Amino acid sequence: MTTPPTDLVLTRQLHVHEFLTGRGWHLDGASDPGEAWFAGDPRAGWHYPASYGGQRINDVAGTTPVRLQSHFTFDDQGEEVFTVVPAGNLRGNGCSEHDTSERFFPLTATGVVDLDEIATLLDTLEPRARSLDPRALIECRYFGPCKR
Question: Looking at 23-140, which runs of residues are DSSP E strands?
């Protein structure tokens, strides 16, 4: 007997949740990873609260640099993937040091997230996120690429 897809999805989400919260990440959105519709909720995911040294930043759409975050989403073929968004400026704004783009991770053949691969990436991205200065990111975005 195989595990029904819904059970697999819930198990996958809970493993990622335990992994990220164990590293100090927080859950976003109004849904819980133990709910079947979590992966389809565009607000569901996790963020790294230590981004920008833990500073609280008012969110202004299209302006505020993004904090280190992750979520489940769907690729162009409709397959579920896991993504990590590094802290920084989205959409090609500013210099290459401050620019960021999503990194997509397909699920393994058994339908889970390769947490070892994610851990290796986060070992680099978490210290970077902690050290970034949001003011420098905003200045880079609006006053031209800085000389990094």
Answer: 26-28, 45-47, 69-74, 80-85, 103-106
Give the separation between CA 42 and CA 128, rounded to whole angstroms.
26
Helix or strand or coil: residue 12? helix
Structure tokens at 63: 């302006």
Beta bridge partners of 63: none
β-pairing verdict for 103-106 and 80-85 = antiparallel
DSSP designation for 53: G
Q: Tell me which residue has tokens 């989403």.
A: 73
Residue 104: what pLDDT?
93
Q: Which three-class secondary structure state does DSSP give residue 116?
A: helix
pLDDT band at 1 (very low <50, low <70, confident <90, very high): very low
Do the Cβ atoms of 55 and 64 come closer than 8 Å? Answer: no
Q: Which residues contact 36 (CB under 8 A, 6 or more apart)?
A: 6, 9, 10
For the chain, the farthest-separated pair of C-alpha atoms sits apart, in whole angstroms, at 60
pLDDT digits (tens, 9 = 90+) for 77-112: 988 899 999 998 876 667 777 778 889 999 999 888
